[in-house]
Amino acid sequence: MSSRPAADTYSDVLVKRANLLPLISSCYPSAVKRLTQSYQENRPVAILVSEGRFGPVHVIDRFLDGVEDDTIVVRIDGTCTDPKAFMQEVVRNIGFDPSDMSLGDLEKVFELYLQYQRTHKLRTIIAVQDSDVHGWWVLDKIRRLVEMEAKEKYGLKVILSGPPSVITVLNEPILDVISAQAGDRIVLTPFTLAETRNHIRRYTENLDPADQNTDDVSQVFEFLAVTLIHEICSGVPDDVHQLCDKCLDIFHETSDKLISIDTVKKAAALVGLTSSSPDDSDDLSVYDGEFAVAPLGRLIVQTHGTEETETLLDQSCFLIGRDQICNICIQGLRVSRLHAVISMSTQGLNIADLGSTNGTSVNGEKVSRFELQDGDVVTIGDTRITYLAGGEQLTRESDSDSTDTFEICNPEPDPNITYLGQDMRLIRTS
Question: What would the pLDDT profile of 148-185 be if each residue is shown by its tens digit?
Fold first, then answer.
């Protein structure tokens, strides 16, 4: 099933994706490895979480390159509004004409197909891209397929990909079998500042070298402009690429010698990455050589049996988990590789659980997302993180690879989730 964005031609989308892939290849090898391991362990489902669209596509493509040639692969990359539309796509992809079939017929055909696959020791993969855009009944259909596979062992694997908001949906009790059978989510982390800079360099090198010397990034972007692109996009590859694209459009339409900070701000407003108008230059406080950072306080980290440490909240996001890329790295059996993220916004400081296995607690209560107040205590495994508000404004160097961090931006709540309660009540009665 194919879905083509209205704003771009399909060929334009392919070109943009192709330009993203070289750097994504170097960023997500562990995600491909984890997806392959999940497949080898015969898990019925895997969940890929990413702010960008192309990252999961590339991870799935790389994973599929390594599966057996006789594996049947069904790709769902459009929008299915109900179970029948979903099953029609599945049945069409396995070689049957679903035109005159009822939902019951479609399900029976697919079950017979899976029985044949099991008899011949063959496997089937259904990859559902942008799983957040499908109707809730489609997620319920996926739940039933996962339950059937967990019970009957047909050799079926479902891969779901989507933004962080999809975790909220999958955590609903009616869909908990999906999370239980998937194990740990595979979270695709954003670019570091160095990776953002490297991507922009590669992107400008791939342009026409006769076009205003755009093969040399230093002749196109001011040094701080690249850093600002990273800050605005929170390192999300798709957004970095989109903002870079718009900056170059403006650059080619003007007589400016370089893409400046003001150009980046204008481009960000035009593509919807900031809430300000294109002519509003006060949305981001940027000064020559430095960014003004107003810390919201400190984090006191205390793990059982170790000395406490103190972290100043002078960045937009702090990743917490077992992985060495995390700003706050915690070792422990009950800590997930990427466990939680603390992020700043105009409303204050928030902590969000990233679908961890053992969860995140604030003041003794498990939370999926929570607005922190002075004195709140976050518990992750055997570690207590106390938030202390306040602190004078400090400055940090705007560009230093030694302090590059992965940043995960917090998306606005998905408006579709407001209908979840009603839809889940309907599903429970089915």
Answer: 999 999 999 999 998 887 877 887 888 889 988 998 88
Taking a C-beta distance cutoff of 8 angstroms, is the pair 128, 76 a contact? yes
In this structure, are residues 87 and 110 in contact, taking their beta carbons and an 8 Å threshold? Answer: yes
Rounded-to-integer distance, Cα 324 and Cα 317, Å: 16
Q: Which residue bears the tokens 């879905």?
A: 3
Contact 87, 98 (CB under 8 A): yes
Amino acid residing at 165 = S
Query: Starting from the edge strand earliest in sequence, which strands make up the sheet with 369-372, in order?
Result: 328-329, 317-321, 340-345, 348-353, 369-372
Task: Sort strands 297-303 and 309-312 into parallel, antiparallel or unpaired.
Answer: antiparallel
381 DSSP assignment: T
The per-residue DSSP string of 264-328 comes to HHHHHHHTTSSSS-TT---SS-EETTEEEE---EEEEEEETTS--EEEE--SSEEEEESSTTSSE
Largest alpha-carbon pair distance within the chain?
A: 69
Q: Per the structure block, which two tokens stand in for 58?
A: 């590339």
Q: What is the pTM of this model?
A: 0.59
- Whether the CB-CB separation of 197 and 57 falls below 8 Å is answered with no
Are residues 387 and 297 in contact, defined by beta-carbon separation less than 8 angstroms?
yes
> Pairing relation of β-strands 377-380 and 383-389?
antiparallel
Per residue in 122-135, pLDDT (tens digit) is 999 999 988 888 87
**C-beta of residue 424 within 8 angstroms of C-beta of residue 168:** no
Residue given tokens 């204050």 in the structure block:
348
